[in-house]
User: Which sequence fits this backbone?
């Protein structure tokens, strides 16, 4: 006990470094999945990629293979997967609308709905494929 009292700064350093190591895991809890994890879900677990941007935003650029279902029309939309056990990855430009959409989808019974952290911006930064709609 004397050692800890005399060397309190070592204990403080150990606690701080442990906290910094755990921080990424703890902060990711509500922030969505990283683009690389979203790709893994799409490829391995057959997740459906849904972009909740408005039609004009979607046409200007979106992740390849994404379905466009604007946030305002999300509830009860016919392009939502009927199998509610299927993972859904939700995306928008920055991730803010996608987080709201994922919450709505979970309330509708799609328990595996998750937003892409950082949205299309993070998707592009990860050098993942994007496309534009014709028209």
Assistant:
């Amino acid at each position: 006990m004397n050692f800890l009292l005399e060397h309190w700064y070592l204990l403080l350093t150990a606690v701080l470094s442990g906290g910094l190591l755990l921080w990424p895991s703890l902060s990711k809890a509500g922030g969505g999945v990283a683009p690389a994890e979203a790709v893994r879900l799409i490829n391995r677990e057959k997740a459906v990629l849904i972009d909740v941007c408005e039609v004009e935003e979607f046409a200007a650029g979106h992740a390849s293979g994404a379905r466009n279902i604007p946030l305002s029309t999300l509830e009860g939309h016919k392009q939502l997967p009927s199998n509610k056990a299927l993972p859904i990855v939700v995306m928008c430009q920055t991730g803010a609308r996608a987080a709201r959409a994922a919450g709505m989808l979970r309330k509708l019974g799609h328990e595996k709905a998750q937003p892409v952290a950082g949205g299309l911006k993070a998707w592009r930064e990860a050098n993942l494929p994007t496309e534009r709609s014709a028209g």
Summary: The chain has a mean pLDDT of 89. The radius of gyration is 20 Å. The helical segments are 2-6, 8-27, 35-45, 55-60, 96-107, 119-125. The chain has six helices and six strands.
